[in-house]
């Protein structure tokens, strides 16, 4: 059976205030053409269909057209909700859509009810695990703890129980939206950390023939059977080195995996350039970036006049301007953002406590309180999105 694994469309999202609907439409054209040209049996969409819980109308219309075209192509589509989606909104009409071959899985309670497709070698059971916010689904899944690993493990126990009751030789595919250990994140994914821990071990999916993951925006292989497709478009400059692709997966009669990366259309290249303004304006090596979306980091000791306008004269698609003056590390004017770079919210908060106490950081009890406070904020955001 031939599968096309994609995820993280983020329909309705912009790139530094540049609208991407046309680029997203071009990607969906490419997706449908690939389905037809490569004789795909099932399309797997592993969450974050939309960029926010209440997407703009233009994004909803684009999604609607894509579903009609996939149904017209005669391909089965299995789709789950991600942490950016409103599961309830995305799941509206799921029963009716299923009759047209569009199978939406947005309710955690149905994670062990698969979409069963067949080929000449037998059945393939597709299990959709929508994004599982631990505090919201722990009771439903009867998880032992409120953490990502615990709720995913609980969901997978249900999956394995259902799979064990099926005919011998039934192959299995799981769609999930999570941060799995071994994956490389970028700046454009929303933080889903709970209890200070974001990643879950890939072993939680042991025994499944193929796991189609969403959430991380870089295409990557965690194990031979556990893969991220990544987003089809770049949504931050941290993705400058990403090759945007989809996975074409051939699932053999005994669960063998054949995998091929298929490139997605690139609307415009990305570039990160760094240096003093006069160097960036004159460097002949930067000619290749003159038509790219550009993030420029200026290192001038003193901010030059109208730097964005000057840069735009050479790089008309410059979108982001950062300042990191060349100064000694001990200089009190050294960039505050640079000092915070790569640090989590928890670490920043603990550093602040140490600063106001003259060097004495939080003890274990206080650290636990801080962890709980950050978790409560994330859960509150999740509850608000579910309620929308």
Automatic annotation (TrEMBL):
The keyword Nuclease applies. Heterodimer of SbcC and SbcD. InterPro entries: Calcineurin-like_PHP, DNA_Repair-Maintenance_Comp, Metallo-depent_PP-like, Mre11_N, SbcD, SbcD_C. CDD domains: MPP_Mre11_N. Keywords: DNA recombination, DNA replication, Endonuclease, Exonuclease, Hydrolase, Nuclease. Residues 1-217 form the Calcineurin-like phosphoesterase domain. Belongs to the SbcD family. This is Nuclease SbcCD subunit D. The gene is sbcD. Coiled coil: none annotated. The keyword Cell inner membrane does not apply.
């Amino acid at each position: 059976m031939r599968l096309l694994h994609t995820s993280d469309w983020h329909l309705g999202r912009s790139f530094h205030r540049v609208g991407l609907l046309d680029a997203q439409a071009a990607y969906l054209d490419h997706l449908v053409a690939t389905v037809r040209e490569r004789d795909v049996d099932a399309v797997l969409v592993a969450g974050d269909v939309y960029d926010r819980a209440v997407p703009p109308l233009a994004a909803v219309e684009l999604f609607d057209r894509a579903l009609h075209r996939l149904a017209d192509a005669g391909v089965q589509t299995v789709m789950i909700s991600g942490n950016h989606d409103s599961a309830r909104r995305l799941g509206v009409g799921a029963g009716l859509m299923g009759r047209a071959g569009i199978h939406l899985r947005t309710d955690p309670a149905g994670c062990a009810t698969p979409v069963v497709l067949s080929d000449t070698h037998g059945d393939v059971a597709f299990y959709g695990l929508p994004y599982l916010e631990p505090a919201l689904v722990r009771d439903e899944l009867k998880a032992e703890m409120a953490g990502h690993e615990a709720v995913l493990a609980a969901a997978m126990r249900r999956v394995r129980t259902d799979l064990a009751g099926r005919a011998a030789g039934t192959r299995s595919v799981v769609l999930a939206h999570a941060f799995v250990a071994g994956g490389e994140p970028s700046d454009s994914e929303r933080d889903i950390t709970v209890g200070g821990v974001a990643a879950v071990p890939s072993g939680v999916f042991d025994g499944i023939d193929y796991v189609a993951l969403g959430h991380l925006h870089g295409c990557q292989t965690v194990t031979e059977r556990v893969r991220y497709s990544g987003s089809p478009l770049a949504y931050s400059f941290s993705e400058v080195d990403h090759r945007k692709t989809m996975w074409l997966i051939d699932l053999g009669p005994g669960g063998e995996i054949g995998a091929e990366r298929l490139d997605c259309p690139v609307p415009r290249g990305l570039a990160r350039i760094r240096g003093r303004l006069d160097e960036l304006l004159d460097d002949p090596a930067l000619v290749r970036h003159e038509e790219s979306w550009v993030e420029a980091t200026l290192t001038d000791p003193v901010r030059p006049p109208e730097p964005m306008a000057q840069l735009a004269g050479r790089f008309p698609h410059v979108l982001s301007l950062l300042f990191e003056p060349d100064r000694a590390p001990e200089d009190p004017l050294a960039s505050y953002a640079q000092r915070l770079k790569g640090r989590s919210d928890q670490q920043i908060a603990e550093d602040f406590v140490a600063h106001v106490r003259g060097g004495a950081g939080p003890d274990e009890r206080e650290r636990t309180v801080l962890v709980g406070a950050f978790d409560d904020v994330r859960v509150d955001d999740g509850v608000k999105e579910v309620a929308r």
